[in-house]
Amino acid sequence: MPRTRLLVLVASTVLFLGAVPAHAAPDPATGIEFADTMEQRMLACAGCHGKQGEGSRQNEYYPRIAGKPAEYLYRQLVNFRNGRRTYPQMVYFSRHLSDEYLLEIATYYSKLAPPFPTPIQASATKEALARGEVIVRKGDAAKGIPACAACHGKALTGMQPGIPGLVGLYPDYINGQLGAWRTGLRKATEPDCMAKIAAKLSGPDGAAAAAYLAAQPGSPQTLPAPDAKMKLPMACGSQPQ
Amino acid sequence: MNYAKLRSAPILAALVAAALAILDPSSIPTAHAQAPKARVPSATRIPAQTDGEYLARAGDCIACHTARGGEPFAGGLEMLTPFGSLYTPNITPDPETGIGKWSADDFYRALHEGKSKDGSLLYPAFPYPSYTKVTRADSDAIYGYIMSIAPVKRKSTPHKMQFPYNQRNLMIGWRTLYFTAGEYKPDPSQSAEWNRGAYLVLGLGHCDACHTSRNMLGATVKDKELSGGLIPLQDWYAPSLTSNREAGLGQWEVEEVVALLRTGISKRGVVFGPMAQVVHDSLQYITEADTQAMAVYLKSLATAGAPADPIQVRPTDTQSRAAYEAGGKIYDQHCKSCHGSNGQGVPPMYPPLANNQAINMEFSVNPIRMVLFGGFPPSTRGNPRPYGMPPFAYTLTDQQVAEVVTYMRQSWGNRANAVNAVEVAKYRTVPVD
Lengths: 241, 433
What we know:
The complex is a heterodimer. By secondary structure, chain A is mainly α.
């Protein structure tokens, strides 16, 4: 979808979501709870990602999706549908859904702000956490690795329109995504900056960064930073400049 | 869901037939021995693009001739078979990598006779046993449309079939046994609407590719046409369209069939699995008049009368009684809030489970897979924002899934056989994408 059309759709979807009807109450005769709402439609997703998109702490691979930028979430859904991401259940769900509906879904979750989970005190060593902090805050210039915060924001809550927050995610999930980029299982719009970074990031460095990120607290008020048109350290297809 | 697997069974047939070695090898021409016929311009007028586009939709060409995330009609979709992989070809009008050099005659011959431009025999994964029923005029219209789309340069991926399955001429045996070329012949004793429906169902729609069982050579069984079949390698059951116990439409209203085909949802049930793809890519674009014709034809197939006797009555022994009751508890906890305490659902958004043929039929794979993996009906013009169902593979054990499916199959008037944990375990690991 061209970017201009996407922006129009984002805007109209936001307007549409402003008029969400009240929550349903169960019908005492049938036990059915039904309302013509996005919340109702998204019960299919709630089983893993939580009713508010808060993610699951029972399984490290069901990430928090609430409050991530709409365009980022939309791109992920399209990537699942079109083969750039491969998690079978997500592919199965998105396979026959339209661009318009995927965008509405993405916009819906981008507006939700459930509480963040308690930060995870990773089992990583002090040294690993310190190394993780360096990767996240400063990067490793010698290896050509930019700081995570340079794109994902100082608060690590992402940046509009295409960069996701990294707070509130399980360390194994973050580490898993880095591995998927490294092996080509996960791809993003070219130029695929994360694929390039993951290729340079060693396994232990990735795990250290993931452990540090998971230990950071988040607040529902910390939304993704606005698109500040700040210069990114490298070209990213998901965040055209 | 790899829809491509759907049509791979005929290949098995070709290969087994070949293995029978009943043919005199000297009679088998090589692929290039037959010189292509001289190009003869078709006498038939090529209709406007929209007609051809519509007919291409009815034939669902795009489903197989498009790779995931790829350019439409540029091919490259992998079709898995036990004998190797087929890759659908590029059918955009690119002269080098597509079919830009094909004439309308070449195109018709592919549909009608299952032969490529150079005379080589096409694998019946390309459903020419159905497309042979397409009229010359409709073939020319589709050809006109295909020639009008933007050419895409994408070299067709070579098939990776193992020897001897890569010998296309071995298909001669299969064709002798199972293929008869011939356009659809209207039945004068039936209405024009019925004949239109039959033409669409049996020809372009190629419904029998899934809804007809296949013999051990992988060919569809003639006297069991549209009577249901397990889709090879894909582990979905395409229900019978002739039995009212399955997807027979004898008791459906025509408008309910039209709603299901055009929007993906209806008061009686929703489409899922491979049929969700068919509705998404093809049937949602078919006019009300044409889907109504299909419904009239399909309803006429289901003349077997009332549903057959129940396969098995509700369990009476203590052990199955306990499993049934455990299923009821799981149902109340996980299913009732959408499907209702009496399986009434919220039609058409959430299908009723009571008297739902998909729940009630002998093969239990479909309801098991629905509980395991949930899903969304397709986004269609008539239902652009579908309601979804969560997967329970991650929260329920095999035993629990068996219990709740058994409960649904034996409650509210449903009377189908019980399901056990072994069956659930079998489908838990099938590829869902």
